[in-house]
Amino acid sequence: MKLTLRVWRQKNADAPGAMSTYEVDGISPDMSFLEMLDTLNERLILAGDDPVAFDHDCREGICGACSLVINGDAHGPERTTTCQLHMRSFRDGDTIDIEPWRASAFPVVKDLVVDRTAFDRIIQAGGYISAPTGTAPEAHATPVPKPDADFAFEHAECIGCGACVAACPNGSAMLFTSAKINHLNVLPQGAPERETRVLDMVAQMDSEGFGGCTLTGECATACPKGIPLPSIAAMNKEWLRATRKARR
């Protein structure tokens, strides 16, 4: 395959950025998108040019590090992570636009790499269980109804990639935050901090400068792990419950 790549290049958050055009050929349809970028970078290095900076780690669709907007879609045309997107999703001769996440809360570090530590600070605000539990308990020591266990697992699948923010026209982090709140609040282990968790995490999310949610649904469409849109409604109910209890 021969492709034309239009790649966002930017030295840092304060420097102006622009799209640069590169031609690559000899690309196998079985390559992953990141392997294609590796091929581009090998050629740039051999030519004495600065390689394109992009985030990656596990390359197995687990860590959420690979964060790219490809032809206007978070993670590209398939509902998967960028590292699991293969070049057979494109056609020979295509022009592909590659950009970083676009959100004020995710400043550009360099080229396609953005700073997503805002997500870490939301987690630090309450996305954990602080009770000392010692070693792992017997699996059946604390009964959990299957619907609750399924609900918790569904939300625990969130990998924090940020595709929901990148896809949202408002740059909202509601889907991410709701996933992290809901998967703990529904379990017995998360019950002691149920109210403080939702209040603290939502407050931190707002302070990070993420936009408001208008329920356009783009976040759920882009999520590679399929976190459902009703997750936001469940979080809003938790927030209202905690707010009313705090006022008593």
Q: What descriptors fit this protein?
A:
elongated, five-stranded mixed β-sheet, two-stranded antiparallel ribbon
Structure commentary:
- This protein is of the alpha+beta class and about 250 residues long.
- Helix content is about 35%, strand content about 10%.
- The strands form two sheets. The chain has a five-stranded mixed sheet with strand order 2-1-5-3-4.
- Strand 1 (about 5-10) and strand 2 form a beta hairpin.
- The protein starts with a strand and ends with a helix.
- The mean pLDDT is about 95.
Strand order of the largest sheet: 2-1-5-3-4
Low-confidence stretches at least 5 residues in length (pLDDT < 50)? none
The succession of helices and strands, N to C, reads EEHEEEEEHHHHHHH
Q: pLDDT average, as an integer?
A: 94
Could you tell me the radius of gyration in angstroms?
Answer: 20 Å
Residues in β-strands, percent: 5-15%
C-alpha termini separation: 65 Å
Number of helices: 8
Main pleated sheet: 5 strands, mixed
Shape: elongated
What's the total count of β strands?
Answer: 7
Tell me the structural class: alpha+beta
